[in-house]
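hey all, quick one before standup. I had two proteins in the batch that finished overnight and I want to keep them in one place so we stop losing track of which output belongs to which input. First protein below, input sequence then C-alpha coordinates straight from the run.
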Amino acid sequence: MMKRTDLSAESAASKLEQVKNEIAKAFIGQKKLVEHALITMIAGGHLLVEGVPGLGKTLLVRALAKTIEGESKRIQFTPDLMPSDITGNIMLDPGTGKFITRKGPVFANLLVADEINRAPAKTQAALFEAMQEFQVSLDGESHPLPSPFMVLATQNPFEHEGTYPLPDAQKDRFLMKMTASYPAAEEEKMMVAKILNGDTGAQLSISGVETVIDTDVFTEIKELAASLRVDPLVIDYAVRMTAATRETAAVETGAGPRGSLSLIRCARARALLCGRDFVLPDDVKALACEVLAHRLTLSAESELEGLNEKRIIENLLQKIEAPKGISGNE
Protein backbone atom coordinates (compact mmCIF):
# COMPACT_ATOMS: atom_id res chain seq x y z
CA MET A 1 0.00 0.00 0.00
CA MET A 2 1.39 3.36 -1.02
CA LYS A 3 1.55 6.10 1.59
CA ARG A 4 -1.10 8.82 1.54
CA THR A 5 0.23 12.32 1.14
CA ASP A 6 -1.22 15.80 1.04
CA LEU A 7 -1.63 16.55 -2.63
CA SER A 8 -1.45 19.86 -4.42
CA ALA A 9 -3.12 20.45 -7.77
CA GLU A 10 0.28 20.29 -9.46
CA SER A 11 1.31 17.01 -7.85
CA ALA A 12 -2.11 15.46 -8.54
CA ALA A 13 -1.83 16.48 -12.20
CA SER A 14 1.65 14.96 -12.33
CA LYS A 15 0.37 11.64 -10.98
CA LEU A 16 -2.53 11.68 -13.44
CA GLU A 17 -0.09 12.34 -16.28
CA GLN A 18 1.81 9.24 -15.19
CA VAL A 19 -1.46 7.30 -15.27
CA LYS A 20 -2.13 8.47 -18.84
CA ASN A 21 1.40 7.57 -19.92
CA GLU A 22 1.05 4.05 -18.54
CA ILE A 23 -2.34 3.56 -20.21
CA ALA A 24 -0.77 4.63 -23.52
CA LYS A 25 1.59 1.65 -23.32
CA ALA A 26 -1.37 -0.67 -23.95
CA PHE A 27 -4.12 1.57 -25.30
CA ILE A 28 -2.80 3.45 -28.33
CA GLY A 29 -4.51 6.65 -29.44
CA GLN A 30 -8.06 7.67 -28.44
CA LYS A 31 -6.60 10.37 -26.17
CA LYS A 32 -9.96 12.06 -25.77
CA LEU A 33 -11.57 8.84 -24.55
CA VAL A 34 -8.75 8.31 -22.03
CA GLU A 35 -9.07 11.89 -20.77
CA HIS A 36 -12.84 11.69 -20.47
CA ALA A 37 -12.64 8.38 -18.61
CA LEU A 38 -10.23 9.95 -16.13
CA ILE A 39 -12.37 13.08 -15.73
CA THR A 40 -15.45 10.94 -15.12
CA MET A 41 -13.68 8.83 -12.52
CA ILE A 42 -12.16 11.85 -10.75
CA ALA A 43 -15.61 13.44 -10.63
CA GLY A 44 -17.09 10.28 -9.12
CA GLY A 45 -19.41 9.53 -12.03
CA HIS A 46 -20.00 7.05 -14.82
CA LEU A 47 -19.34 7.16 -18.56
CA LEU A 48 -21.55 6.01 -21.44
CA VAL A 49 -19.59 5.29 -24.62
CA GLU A 50 -21.22 4.79 -27.99
CA GLY A 51 -19.13 3.08 -30.63
CA VAL A 52 -18.67 0.01 -32.75
CA PRO A 53 -17.13 -3.12 -31.15
CA GLY A 54 -13.38 -3.62 -31.23
CA LEU A 55 -12.20 -0.12 -30.32
CA GLY A 56 -10.48 -1.27 -27.12
CA LYS A 57 -12.84 0.06 -24.46
CA THR A 58 -12.33 -2.99 -22.25
CA LEU A 59 -8.57 -2.71 -22.72
CA LEU A 60 -8.72 0.92 -21.58
CA VAL A 61 -10.56 -0.05 -18.39
CA ARG A 62 -8.16 -2.89 -17.63
CA ALA A 63 -5.15 -0.62 -18.14
CA LEU A 64 -6.64 2.18 -16.04
CA ALA A 65 -7.44 -0.23 -13.22
CA LYS A 66 -3.89 -1.55 -13.22
CA THR A 67 -2.36 1.94 -13.02
CA ILE A 68 -4.27 2.66 -9.79
CA GLU A 69 -3.86 -0.86 -8.34
CA GLY A 70 -7.57 -1.43 -8.72
CA GLU A 71 -9.76 -4.27 -9.95
CA SER A 72 -11.69 -4.32 -13.21
CA LYS A 73 -14.48 -6.61 -14.35
CA ARG A 74 -16.67 -6.91 -17.42
CA ILE A 75 -20.29 -7.90 -17.92
CA GLN A 76 -21.66 -8.75 -21.36
CA PHE A 77 -25.27 -7.61 -21.26
CA THR A 78 -27.72 -9.98 -22.95
CA PRO A 79 -31.55 -10.29 -23.02
CA ASP A 80 -31.45 -13.17 -20.50
CA LEU A 81 -29.11 -11.44 -18.02
CA MET A 82 -30.61 -11.39 -14.52
CA PRO A 83 -30.12 -8.69 -11.83
CA SER A 84 -28.35 -11.26 -9.63
CA ASP A 85 -25.80 -11.78 -12.42
CA ILE A 86 -24.70 -8.22 -11.72
CA THR A 87 -25.18 -7.73 -7.99
CA GLY A 88 -24.76 -11.29 -6.67
CA ASN A 89 -27.05 -13.20 -4.34
CA ILE A 90 -27.44 -15.13 -1.10
CA MET A 91 -26.94 -18.87 -1.51
CA LEU A 92 -26.85 -21.98 0.66
CA ASP A 93 -23.44 -23.54 1.18
CA PRO A 94 -24.05 -27.34 1.00
CA GLY A 95 -20.88 -28.01 3.01
CA THR A 96 -21.78 -25.92 6.06
CA GLY A 97 -25.53 -25.65 5.69
CA LYS A 98 -25.23 -21.88 6.12
CA PHE A 99 -26.21 -19.07 3.81
CA ILE A 100 -23.32 -17.19 2.27
CA THR A 101 -23.10 -14.00 0.25
CA ARG A 102 -21.90 -14.34 -3.33
CA LYS A 103 -20.90 -10.90 -4.54
CA GLY A 104 -21.41 -10.19 -8.22
CA PRO A 105 -19.03 -8.56 -10.71
CA VAL A 106 -20.31 -5.08 -9.81
CA PHE A 107 -17.97 -5.27 -6.81
CA ALA A 108 -14.96 -3.83 -8.64
CA ASN A 109 -13.30 -0.45 -9.02
CA LEU A 110 -14.01 -0.29 -12.74
CA LEU A 111 -16.82 -2.17 -14.43
CA VAL A 112 -17.35 -2.48 -18.17
CA ALA A 113 -21.07 -2.87 -18.89
CA ASP A 114 -20.84 -4.01 -22.50
CA GLU A 115 -23.86 -3.32 -24.73
CA ILE A 116 -25.91 -2.22 -21.76
CA ASN A 117 -29.03 -1.67 -23.85
CA ARG A 118 -29.30 -5.38 -24.70
CA ALA A 119 -30.58 -6.23 -21.20
CA PRO A 120 -34.20 -5.70 -20.08
CA ALA A 121 -35.18 -2.75 -17.89
CA LYS A 122 -35.22 -4.76 -14.65
CA THR A 123 -31.59 -5.83 -15.13
CA GLN A 124 -30.54 -2.34 -16.16
CA ALA A 125 -32.19 -1.01 -13.00
CA ALA A 126 -30.05 -3.27 -10.81
CA LEU A 127 -26.92 -1.67 -12.21
CA PHE A 128 -28.27 1.88 -12.04
CA GLU A 129 -29.10 1.41 -8.35
CA ALA A 130 -25.47 0.50 -7.71
CA MET A 131 -24.32 3.48 -9.77
CA GLN A 132 -26.54 5.89 -7.87
CA GLU A 133 -26.12 4.59 -4.32
CA PHE A 134 -22.60 3.11 -4.60
CA GLN A 135 -23.86 0.11 -2.68
CA VAL A 136 -25.78 -3.11 -3.29
CA SER A 137 -28.52 -4.58 -1.10
CA LEU A 138 -28.49 -8.36 -0.74
CA ASP A 139 -31.10 -10.01 1.46
CA GLY A 140 -31.81 -6.72 3.18
CA GLU A 141 -28.17 -5.99 3.98
CA SER A 142 -26.27 -3.13 2.32
CA HIS A 143 -22.83 -3.84 0.91
CA PRO A 144 -20.73 -0.79 -0.07
CA LEU A 145 -18.97 -0.88 -3.41
CA PRO A 146 -15.18 -0.41 -3.60
CA SER A 147 -13.80 3.12 -3.78
CA PRO A 148 -13.24 4.46 -6.35
CA PHE A 149 -16.05 2.94 -8.41
CA MET A 150 -16.91 3.74 -12.03
CA VAL A 151 -19.07 2.11 -14.68
CA LEU A 152 -18.04 2.47 -18.31
CA ALA A 153 -21.09 1.36 -20.24
CA THR A 154 -21.10 0.80 -23.99
CA GLN A 155 -23.81 0.67 -26.59
CA ASN A 156 -23.54 -0.02 -30.30
CA PRO A 157 -25.08 2.77 -32.40
CA PHE A 158 -25.64 0.59 -35.45
CA GLU A 159 -27.37 -2.47 -34.00
CA HIS A 160 -30.94 -1.92 -32.83
CA GLU A 161 -32.45 -5.41 -33.05
CA GLY A 162 -32.86 -6.99 -29.64
CA THR A 163 -32.06 -3.82 -27.72
CA TYR A 164 -33.86 -2.04 -24.89
CA PRO A 165 -33.21 1.71 -25.28
CA LEU A 166 -32.12 3.44 -22.07
CA PRO A 167 -34.91 5.62 -20.64
CA ASP A 168 -34.07 9.32 -20.34
CA ALA A 169 -33.99 9.09 -16.53
CA GLN A 170 -31.34 6.37 -16.72
CA LYS A 171 -29.24 8.15 -19.34
CA ASP A 172 -29.29 11.15 -17.01
CA ARG A 173 -27.43 9.06 -14.41
CA PHE A 174 -24.36 9.00 -16.63
CA LEU A 175 -22.09 11.94 -15.96
CA MET A 176 -20.93 12.03 -19.58
CA LYS A 177 -21.64 10.33 -22.88
CA MET A 178 -19.19 10.30 -25.76
CA THR A 179 -18.67 8.60 -29.09
CA ALA A 180 -15.58 6.45 -29.59
CA SER A 181 -14.28 6.98 -33.09
CA TYR A 182 -12.00 4.84 -35.22
CA PRO A 183 -8.28 5.40 -34.60
CA ALA A 184 -6.23 7.46 -37.02
CA ALA A 185 -4.35 5.47 -39.68
CA GLU A 186 -0.95 5.97 -38.03
CA GLU A 187 -2.35 4.95 -34.63
CA GLU A 188 -3.93 1.84 -36.12
CA LYS A 189 -0.63 0.83 -37.74
CA MET A 190 1.19 1.30 -34.41
CA MET A 191 -1.50 -0.75 -32.67
CA VAL A 192 -1.29 -3.66 -35.11
CA ALA A 193 2.53 -3.70 -35.03
CA LYS A 194 2.60 -3.62 -31.23
CA ILE A 195 -0.02 -6.30 -30.68
CA LEU A 196 1.43 -8.72 -33.23
CA ASN A 197 5.03 -8.28 -32.08
CA GLY A 198 5.86 -11.86 -31.08
CA ASP A 199 2.24 -12.71 -30.29
CA THR A 200 -0.85 -14.06 -32.00
CA GLY A 201 -2.80 -10.95 -31.00
CA ALA A 202 -5.74 -13.07 -29.83
CA GLN A 203 -5.62 -11.50 -26.35
CA LEU A 204 -4.73 -7.88 -25.67
CA SER A 205 -2.07 -7.61 -22.99
CA ILE A 206 -1.53 -4.99 -20.29
CA SER A 207 1.66 -6.62 -19.02
CA GLY A 208 3.70 -3.52 -19.83
CA VAL A 209 1.46 -1.23 -17.79
CA GLU A 210 2.84 -0.30 -14.37
CA THR A 211 0.99 0.71 -11.21
CA VAL A 212 1.81 4.34 -10.39
CA ILE A 213 -0.64 5.11 -7.57
CA ASP A 214 -3.07 3.09 -5.47
CA THR A 215 -6.81 3.40 -4.94
CA ASP A 216 -6.31 5.38 -1.71
CA VAL A 217 -4.26 8.02 -3.53
CA PHE A 218 -6.83 8.15 -6.35
CA THR A 219 -9.57 8.68 -3.75
CA GLU A 220 -7.47 11.52 -2.35
CA ILE A 221 -7.28 13.01 -5.86
CA LYS A 222 -11.09 12.79 -6.09
CA GLU A 223 -11.43 14.60 -2.78
CA LEU A 224 -9.04 17.31 -3.94
CA ALA A 225 -11.07 17.84 -7.13
CA ALA A 226 -14.25 18.10 -5.06
CA SER A 227 -12.66 20.86 -2.97
CA LEU A 228 -11.58 23.08 -5.88
CA ARG A 229 -13.07 26.53 -5.68
CA VAL A 230 -15.46 27.59 -8.41
CA ASP A 231 -16.11 31.25 -9.13
CA PRO A 232 -19.82 32.17 -8.89
CA LEU A 233 -19.60 33.52 -12.46
CA VAL A 234 -18.52 30.07 -13.70
CA ILE A 235 -21.44 28.47 -11.85
CA ASP A 236 -23.76 31.06 -13.40
CA TYR A 237 -22.35 30.22 -16.85
CA ALA A 238 -22.96 26.48 -16.36
CA VAL A 239 -26.51 27.09 -15.15
CA ARG A 240 -27.25 29.44 -18.09
CA MET A 241 -25.94 26.81 -20.52
CA THR A 242 -28.14 24.12 -19.01
CA ALA A 243 -31.22 26.34 -18.76
CA ALA A 244 -30.81 27.36 -22.41
CA THR A 245 -31.39 23.74 -23.48
CA ARG A 246 -34.90 23.99 -22.00
CA GLU A 247 -35.67 27.13 -24.01
CA THR A 248 -34.55 25.86 -27.42
CA ALA A 249 -37.31 25.26 -29.93
CA ALA A 250 -35.58 22.19 -31.36
CA VAL A 251 -35.59 20.49 -27.96
CA GLU A 252 -38.68 18.83 -26.52
CA THR A 253 -37.12 18.20 -23.11
CA GLY A 254 -33.97 19.99 -21.95
CA ALA A 255 -31.39 19.08 -19.33
CA GLY A 256 -32.45 19.27 -15.70
CA PRO A 257 -30.51 20.61 -12.70
CA ARG A 258 -28.38 17.47 -12.71
CA GLY A 259 -26.92 18.83 -15.95
CA SER A 260 -25.65 21.96 -14.20
CA LEU A 261 -24.23 19.92 -11.34
CA SER A 262 -22.54 17.54 -13.75
CA LEU A 263 -20.97 20.41 -15.71
CA ILE A 264 -19.31 21.79 -12.59
CA ARG A 265 -18.24 18.35 -11.35
CA CYS A 266 -16.57 17.58 -14.67
CA ALA A 267 -15.09 21.08 -14.96
CA ARG A 268 -13.41 20.68 -11.55
CA ALA A 269 -11.95 17.32 -12.59
CA ARG A 270 -10.65 18.80 -15.85
CA ALA A 271 -9.10 21.75 -14.01
CA LEU A 272 -7.23 19.35 -11.73
CA LEU A 273 -6.12 17.27 -14.70
CA CYS A 274 -4.61 20.50 -16.07
CA GLY A 275 -2.83 21.21 -12.77
CA ARG A 276 -5.08 24.07 -11.68
CA ASP A 277 -6.82 24.53 -8.33
CA PHE A 278 -9.53 26.71 -9.87
CA VAL A 279 -12.08 26.27 -12.66
CA LEU A 280 -12.18 28.29 -15.88
CA PRO A 281 -15.12 28.85 -18.23
CA ASP A 282 -13.05 26.92 -20.80
CA ASP A 283 -13.41 23.81 -18.61
CA VAL A 284 -17.19 24.11 -18.92
CA LYS A 285 -16.99 24.77 -22.67
CA ALA A 286 -14.70 21.80 -23.32
CA LEU A 287 -17.11 19.31 -21.75
CA ALA A 288 -20.55 20.81 -22.44
CA CYS A 289 -21.36 18.50 -25.37
CA GLU A 290 -20.41 15.31 -23.54
CA VAL A 291 -22.20 16.37 -20.33
CA LEU A 292 -25.43 17.85 -21.75
CA ALA A 293 -26.16 16.33 -25.18
CA HIS A 294 -27.40 12.93 -23.94
CA ARG A 295 -29.81 14.65 -21.53
CA LEU A 296 -31.82 16.25 -24.36
CA THR A 297 -34.90 14.92 -26.10
CA LEU A 298 -35.25 16.42 -29.57
CA SER A 299 -38.53 17.45 -31.13
CA ALA A 300 -39.77 15.54 -34.16
CA GLU A 301 -39.28 18.63 -36.32
CA SER A 302 -35.61 19.01 -35.40
CA GLU A 303 -34.88 15.37 -36.26
CA LEU A 304 -36.53 15.86 -39.65
CA GLU A 305 -34.31 18.90 -40.19
CA GLY A 306 -31.22 16.80 -39.50
CA LEU A 307 -30.31 18.45 -36.19
CA ASN A 308 -28.70 16.38 -33.46
CA GLU A 309 -28.05 16.96 -29.78
CA LYS A 310 -24.37 17.76 -30.22
CA ARG A 311 -25.06 20.41 -32.87
CA ILE A 312 -27.60 22.07 -30.58
CA ILE A 313 -25.10 22.32 -27.71
CA GLU A 314 -22.43 23.66 -30.07
CA ASN A 315 -24.87 26.35 -31.24
CA LEU A 316 -25.63 27.32 -27.65
CA LEU A 317 -21.90 27.57 -26.86
CA GLN A 318 -21.58 30.15 -29.64
CA LYS A 319 -24.59 32.15 -28.47
CA ILE A 320 -24.12 32.21 -24.69
CA GLU A 321 -21.41 34.58 -23.52
CA ALA A 322 -18.82 33.13 -21.16
CA PRO A 323 -17.55 35.20 -18.22
CA LYS A 324 -14.18 36.87 -18.68
CA GLY A 325 -11.34 37.64 -16.30
CA ILE A 326 -11.66 34.46 -14.23
CA SER A 327 -8.37 33.48 -12.58
CA GLY A 328 -7.02 31.69 -9.54
CA ASN A 329 -6.66 34.95 -7.62
CA GLU A 330 -9.12 35.60 -4.85
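OK second protein, same deal, sequence then C-alpha coordinates:
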Amino acid sequence: MAHLNKIKKIKKIRLHQEGTHILITSAILLILINAGLYWGIPCKVPFYICAPVSIMLYLLMINFFRCPIRLFGNDTEKIVVAPADGKIVVIEETDEHEYFHDKRLMISIFMGITNVHANWYPVDGTIRHVSHQNGQYMKAWLPKASTDNERSTIVIETPEGHTVMARQIAGAVARRIVTYAEVGEDCFIDEHMGFIKFGSRVDVYLPIGTEVCVKMGQRTVGNQTIIAKLK
Protein backbone atom coordinates (compact mmCIF):
# COMPACT_ATOMS: atom_id res chain seq x y z
CA MET A 1 0.00 0.00 0.00
CA ALA A 2 1.52 3.31 -1.06
CA HIS A 3 1.04 6.62 0.68
CA LEU A 4 -1.09 8.84 -1.52
CA ASN A 5 -0.33 11.97 0.44
CA LYS A 6 3.40 12.06 -0.22
CA ILE A 7 4.01 15.14 -2.31
CA LYS A 8 7.50 16.30 -1.44
CA LYS A 9 10.44 15.42 0.72
CA ILE A 10 10.82 17.29 4.00
CA LYS A 11 14.34 18.22 5.06
CA LYS A 12 13.80 19.52 8.58
CA ILE A 13 15.91 18.45 11.56
CA ARG A 14 14.72 17.89 15.10
CA LEU A 15 16.00 16.01 18.14
CA HIS A 16 14.70 12.50 18.71
CA GLN A 17 12.50 11.92 21.76
CA GLU A 18 14.81 9.11 22.89
CA GLY A 19 17.50 11.69 23.61
CA THR A 20 15.44 14.07 25.76
CA HIS A 21 16.30 12.67 29.20
CA ILE A 22 19.93 11.98 28.31
CA LEU A 23 20.48 15.48 26.93
CA ILE A 24 18.82 17.19 29.90
CA THR A 25 20.69 15.08 32.46
CA SER A 26 24.00 15.52 30.65
CA ALA A 27 23.53 19.28 30.38
CA ILE A 28 22.87 19.60 34.12
CA LEU A 29 25.83 17.39 34.99
CA LEU A 30 28.26 19.23 32.70
CA ILE A 31 27.09 22.62 33.96
CA LEU A 32 27.60 21.54 37.59
CA ILE A 33 31.07 20.15 36.85
CA ASN A 34 32.20 23.26 35.01
CA ALA A 35 30.65 25.59 37.59
CA GLY A 36 32.54 23.75 40.31
CA LEU A 37 35.81 24.09 38.42
CA TYR A 38 35.15 27.75 37.70
CA TRP A 39 34.53 28.51 41.36
CA GLY A 40 37.73 26.83 42.43
CA ILE A 41 36.95 23.21 43.36
CA PRO A 42 40.35 21.42 43.34
CA CYS A 43 40.78 19.22 40.29
CA LYS A 44 43.65 18.02 38.09
CA VAL A 45 41.72 19.18 34.99
CA PRO A 46 41.53 23.00 34.82
CA PHE A 47 38.35 24.83 33.86
CA TYR A 48 39.78 26.22 30.60
CA ILE A 49 40.28 22.63 29.37
CA CYS A 50 37.13 21.08 30.81
CA ALA A 51 34.79 23.76 29.43
CA PRO A 52 35.61 23.38 25.70
CA VAL A 53 35.75 19.58 26.05
CA SER A 54 32.32 19.64 27.68
CA ILE A 55 30.91 21.78 24.88
CA MET A 56 32.35 19.48 22.21
CA LEU A 57 31.02 16.40 23.99
CA TYR A 58 27.55 17.89 24.30
CA LEU A 59 27.49 18.94 20.64
CA LEU A 60 28.39 15.36 19.68
CA MET A 61 25.48 14.09 21.76
CA ILE A 62 23.12 16.56 20.09
CA ASN A 63 24.42 15.41 16.71
CA PHE A 64 23.82 11.77 17.68
CA PHE A 65 20.20 12.36 18.68
CA ARG A 66 19.29 14.48 15.67
CA CYS A 67 16.24 13.18 13.84
CA PRO A 68 15.65 14.38 10.26
CA ILE A 69 12.02 14.52 9.14
CA ARG A 70 12.03 12.67 5.83
CA LEU A 71 9.39 11.55 3.36
CA PHE A 72 10.25 8.99 0.69
CA GLY A 73 8.09 10.85 -1.82
CA ASN A 74 7.68 8.07 -4.42
CA ASP A 75 5.53 4.99 -4.97
CA THR A 76 6.41 2.40 -2.30
CA GLU A 77 4.93 -0.68 -3.98
CA LYS A 78 7.51 -3.54 -3.85
CA ILE A 79 10.16 -1.04 -2.74
CA VAL A 80 12.58 -1.70 0.14
CA VAL A 81 14.20 1.44 1.53
CA ALA A 82 17.19 1.71 3.85
CA PRO A 83 15.97 1.53 7.45
CA ALA A 84 18.98 3.53 8.65
CA ASP A 85 21.76 5.93 7.76
CA GLY A 86 25.11 4.20 7.43
CA LYS A 87 27.18 1.97 5.18
CA ILE A 88 26.35 -1.32 3.46
CA VAL A 89 28.60 -3.96 5.06
CA VAL A 90 26.90 -7.21 3.99
CA ILE A 91 25.02 -8.36 0.87
CA GLU A 92 24.71 -12.12 0.87
CA GLU A 93 22.40 -15.12 0.89
CA THR A 94 22.35 -16.68 4.33
CA ASP A 95 20.42 -19.18 6.43
CA GLU A 96 18.12 -17.43 8.89
CA HIS A 97 17.52 -19.76 11.85
CA GLU A 98 15.47 -17.74 14.34
CA TYR A 99 12.24 -17.08 12.42
CA PHE A 100 12.22 -18.16 8.76
CA HIS A 101 14.40 -21.26 9.12
CA ASP A 102 15.35 -21.02 5.47
CA LYS A 103 17.69 -19.14 3.14
CA ARG A 104 17.25 -15.39 2.78
CA LEU A 105 18.99 -12.46 1.14
CA MET A 106 20.53 -10.30 3.87
CA ILE A 107 21.50 -6.64 3.45
CA SER A 108 23.21 -5.08 6.46
CA ILE A 109 23.74 -1.41 7.26
CA PHE A 110 26.34 -0.39 9.85
CA MET A 111 25.70 2.87 11.69
CA GLY A 112 28.73 4.76 12.92
CA ILE A 113 28.67 7.04 15.94
CA THR A 114 28.14 10.12 13.74
CA ASN A 115 25.16 8.68 11.82
CA VAL A 116 21.51 9.37 12.57
CA HIS A 117 20.40 6.47 14.78
CA ALA A 118 16.65 6.65 14.19
CA ASN A 119 15.38 3.59 12.28
CA TRP A 120 12.60 3.56 9.69
CA TYR A 121 10.40 0.72 8.45
CA PRO A 122 11.94 -0.65 5.23
CA VAL A 123 8.58 -1.60 3.64
CA ASP A 124 4.85 -0.96 3.86
CA GLY A 125 2.88 -3.81 5.41
CA THR A 126 1.52 -5.45 8.54
CA ILE A 127 3.70 -6.42 11.49
CA ARG A 128 3.52 -10.18 12.05
CA HIS A 129 6.25 -10.72 14.68
CA VAL A 130 8.25 -8.70 17.20
CA SER A 131 10.83 -10.18 19.58
CA HIS A 132 13.87 -9.18 21.60
CA GLN A 133 16.88 -11.37 22.33
CA ASN A 134 19.54 -10.60 24.90
CA GLY A 135 23.11 -11.20 23.84
CA GLN A 136 26.66 -9.95 23.64
CA TYR A 137 27.99 -6.54 22.61
CA MET A 138 30.56 -7.39 19.96
CA LYS A 139 31.51 -4.84 17.31
CA ALA A 140 28.42 -4.45 15.12
CA TRP A 141 30.20 -4.97 11.79
CA LEU A 142 31.37 -8.48 12.70
CA PRO A 143 29.42 -11.34 11.01
CA LYS A 144 28.51 -12.99 14.34
CA ALA A 145 26.88 -9.77 15.58
CA SER A 146 23.71 -10.70 13.66
CA THR A 147 23.16 -13.81 15.78
CA ASP A 148 25.17 -13.28 18.97
CA ASN A 149 24.57 -9.64 19.92
CA GLU A 150 21.55 -8.21 21.69
CA ARG A 151 18.90 -7.61 19.01
CA SER A 152 15.28 -6.90 18.23
CA THR A 153 13.51 -8.61 15.34
CA ILE A 154 10.55 -7.19 13.40
CA VAL A 155 8.81 -9.25 10.68
CA ILE A 156 6.58 -7.44 8.19
CA GLU A 157 4.20 -8.91 5.61
CA THR A 158 3.85 -6.62 2.60
CA PRO A 159 0.56 -6.06 0.72
CA GLU A 160 1.91 -8.31 -2.07
CA GLY A 161 2.46 -11.18 0.36
CA HIS A 162 6.25 -10.93 0.77
CA THR A 163 7.69 -11.36 4.25
CA VAL A 164 10.53 -9.02 5.21
CA MET A 165 12.52 -9.03 8.43
CA ALA A 166 14.33 -6.05 9.95
CA ARG A 167 16.72 -6.77 12.81
CA GLN A 168 18.10 -4.03 15.06
CA ILE A 169 21.47 -5.08 16.49
CA ALA A 170 23.36 -3.55 19.40
CA GLY A 171 27.07 -2.89 18.96
CA ALA A 172 30.11 -2.64 21.21
CA VAL A 173 28.95 0.75 22.49
CA ALA A 174 25.18 0.53 22.00
CA ARG A 175 23.44 -0.64 25.15
CA ARG A 176 19.80 0.00 24.41
CA ILE A 177 17.57 -0.89 21.49
CA VAL A 178 14.18 0.83 21.29
CA THR A 179 11.51 -0.79 19.08
CA TYR A 180 8.11 0.78 18.43
CA ALA A 181 6.63 -2.06 16.37
CA GLU A 182 3.65 -4.03 17.73
CA VAL A 183 2.21 -7.22 16.25
CA GLY A 184 -0.91 -6.66 14.15
CA GLU A 185 -0.28 -3.00 13.41
CA ASP A 186 0.07 -1.63 9.91
CA CYS A 187 3.41 0.03 9.23
CA PHE A 188 4.61 2.28 6.46
CA ILE A 189 7.77 3.64 4.92
CA ASP A 190 8.26 7.15 6.46
CA GLU A 191 7.40 5.87 9.96
CA HIS A 192 9.97 5.30 12.68
CA MET A 193 10.58 1.65 13.55
CA GLY A 194 12.78 2.43 16.54
CA PHE A 195 16.09 3.85 17.74
CA ILE A 196 19.43 2.33 18.74
CA LYS A 197 21.61 4.27 21.15
CA PHE A 198 25.33 4.71 20.37
CA GLY A 199 26.68 2.62 17.47
CA SER A 200 24.87 -0.31 15.93
CA ARG A 201 23.58 -2.10 12.84
CA VAL A 202 20.35 -3.02 11.07
CA ASP A 203 19.97 -6.21 8.99
CA VAL A 204 17.18 -6.62 6.44
CA TYR A 205 16.24 -10.19 5.38
CA LEU A 206 14.51 -10.46 2.01
CA PRO A 207 13.14 -13.30 -0.14
CA ILE A 208 15.67 -15.01 -2.41
CA GLY A 209 15.49 -13.49 -5.89
CA THR A 210 14.91 -9.94 -4.65
CA GLU A 211 16.63 -7.35 -6.85
CA VAL A 212 19.49 -5.66 -4.98
CA CYS A 213 19.85 -1.93 -5.68
CA VAL A 214 22.96 -1.15 -3.59
CA LYS A 215 26.57 -2.32 -3.47
CA MET A 216 29.09 -3.06 -0.76
CA GLY A 217 30.48 0.02 0.95
CA GLN A 218 27.73 2.29 -0.35
CA ARG A 219 26.45 4.97 1.99
CA THR A 220 22.73 4.89 2.71
CA VAL A 221 20.26 7.53 3.83
CA GLY A 222 17.46 6.17 6.00
CA ASN A 223 14.01 6.29 4.39
CA GLN A 224 15.56 7.62 1.17
CA THR A 225 17.96 5.08 -0.38
CA ILE A 226 16.27 2.22 -2.24
CA ILE A 227 18.20 -0.91 -1.24
CA ALA A 228 16.08 -3.52 -3.05
CA LYS A 229 13.00 -4.22 -5.16
CA LEU A 230 10.73 -7.14 -4.37
CA LYS A 231 9.41 -9.40 -7.12
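Flagging for whoever picks this up: Helices lie at 20-38, 47-64, 145-148. The chain is about 20% helix and 35% strand.
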